[in-house]
Amino acid sequence: MKLDKILTTLATLLLMCVGTYAQTDSLRLRFVYEGTVRDAVTGKVLQYVGVSVPGRNFATVTNVDGDFIIKSDESASELTFSLLGYKSLTLPVPDEPGTRMRVSMAPQSLTLHEAMIISADPYSLVDEAIKRIPVNYSLAPELHRSFYRETVQKRQKYVYISEAVSDIYKTSYAEDVWRDNVSIDKSRVLLSQKASDTLTMKVLGGPTQCIICDIVKSPRILLDKYELAHYELSMDSPTTIGGKLQFVVNLAPREIVPYALFYGKIYIDQQSLAFTRFELFTDMSDEVKATQAMLVRKPIGLKFKPREMSITIDYKTEGDITRMSYVRTVFRFNCDWRKRLISTSFTAINEMVVTERMEKAVKIPHSESFRQQKALADVTEMYFDPDFWEDYNIIEPSESLEHAITRLKKQQD
Length: 413
Fold this sequence. Notes:
Layout: H1 3-6, E1 8-10, E2 31-39, E3 50-52, E4 59-61, E5 67-72, E6 78-82, E7 89-92, E8 101-105, H2 114-118, H3 122-131, H4 133-136, E9 142-154, E10 157-170, E11 181-191, E12 202-204, H5 209-212, H6 225-228, E13 231-241, E14 244-253, E15 262-269, E16 275-282, H7 287-294, E17 302-318, E18 321-337, E19 344-357, H8 376-379, H9 399-412
Parallel strand pairs: 2-8
Antiparallel strand pairs: 1-12, 2-5, 3-4, 3-6, 6-7, 9-10, 9-19, 10-11, 13-14, 14-15, 15-16, 16-17, 17-18, 18-19
């Protein structure tokens, strides 16, 4: 099944009026912990590190600057950090409230027989992991809370920023993904007021990406026999996630089909055979197919050149159950009107992190569900409250994003 058929949503850059959006405030997350995560060897900041409160259901990830902020309803004594290729780390929080944590994570060195793992049959391995989905993933409905952010950059300048806290109702992994749904709890949008920055088109993602990008629950994207037959699989060097050894399976197109396929990697837990991570990059060798996968609609006379469409999906294991924890989509393209000689580059990035798993799985009413066909900007108005996300877990904005938010706010004054 073509990915663009089920993974597209509107992200519309239109001028909007300033207003107030009705909110349901949460006053539970009173304990706040912040810090920066770096590589213990090189000192480089580490992006997309999973940060969680042990014994609680709260989590987030570090931003591109390696910074994180995480909140809890109870005082935490420790925080846990995990990242692909690094040793999982649990550290005590500072005694002094407000003190930033300085976290150093060491690369994980493998001591097992890598040659034996690399020589495994990738087709049999993936097939066995598919068979174990009912064992490794929840067969009971669950309700998660997540933070979602989508940004669009024109060259290096941010022209659109939209954020939301959403609730995600996921049915059993024995049921179809289309029974899952999402509701928006709180959201805001900031965008450029310059006419030259406005662009209307459909891009990958949206608040429902946490449902439609769940490859484990949507095997028609990649994991059914028909789709896998289009790919050449091979074993790569093993790695670790959260201190656990992972099989790594390379993925590359082996057949010519009417739509664009992927290159990428599939990560499978060595012990449980649970799928833990997918890294997928749309094949750009055929520009027509890549355009069909990326572009749903554009204005007449607009030239469009695809550059990248990629998706990363992380799953986290708690006890015996593995759950989706983080999704990031990247959408890069060049476009401009035909009369111009130099095209303009655009980058759209959407990311979603599950920040909390609720104790009771209350189904979201159909009337409150966010529809896949809508854009977050269509249902959200401008909001300038500096404490807008005070009582929610979010992905800490990067320094560049903070500056962009300040500039976009000034445009509205």
